[in-house]
# Entry
Amino acid sequence: MTTRCNELNFSGGPGALPASVLQQTQRAIEALPETGLSVLGMSHRSAWFISLVEEAMENLRGLLGLSDDYDIAFMQGGSSLQFATIPMNFAGPAWAPPQYISSGYWSRRATAEAQRVHRCGVAWDGEASRYSELPDLAQLDIDPRAAYLHYVSNETVEGLQFGEQRTPSSVPLIADMSSDFLSAPVDTGRYSMIYAHAQKNLGPSGVTVALVKRALLERIPKGLPAILDYRTHIAHRSNYNTPPVFAIYVLTLVSRWLRDDIGGLLAMQKINERKSAMIYGTLDALGDAVRIHAKAPWRSRMNVAFSFGAESLDRAFVEFARERNMTGLEGHRSLGGMRASLYNAVTEQAVAALCETIREFAATRL
# Structure
């Protein structure tokens, strides 16, 4: 595991991890300093793990400024399981159908899965623009009796990102923040629920963080399977069934890194803004030679989806970058082109190297 390889990982997920976290994880796989045992063999019933979960929750509360009105659960199944679990728990006959924003690949998946278990409405659909722009949620005509409004804060495939959002009237707001969670401060009080799987900014795949307002938990109907009931995981402190010990351990290391090395989420936001400004500036300078999928007002700081306009050129660039030790730049299968993911652990030096590679490719191949 070398710092160089980590710095040049632009994959959409699993994403890059901080070099210091990789080093600590490497040592922990052999033996944890606190226990002398490998983290891969640590019991989820051990005092060490129980303490780790408590620290992870406390670190998240501190980073986000999360109030005591919210509970935290570490769950499994990624966002895909949340897509079905959320309507099972929070939609019901006492409310109008929940509303969904269909703004890209993952929000379409969330909407389709929710509709398998409950009647849901689509409040806005970006298909007409080929998912290159986003709405202002406060301007949408949402039934005030809707169970909730769901959206994906950052579309990794199309490279679209919402800013802070408010819902009309008192409709609870639920956000899938999987790919921009902890990348900047969030006004958590605006949300009834935030969830995020780990493999973008939090650690390896295997764990999903759910922040749920206690008032929303009161809606959960009786009779759900215990493992699909958020109250189960909260009551058992994320230890109802065997949890992903390794993934939670790495998530905890990442939370320490954000707190101690970076200096919190505002500092992380400033770093991410510099990185995205660097690469968008490089691409914009090429004019018509490159196409950025997202329209300018909605460009993501996390995922930059672009193309040189021909599949042969895009393949050539990916190979050109790979020769310079840059991996993960292939675009998603549904969109093609390239995608540079600038998650928290991708350094400014790595982004500068990518920008130089883009300029060099353009000068010699276009």
Remarks:
- The longest strand covers residues 70-75.
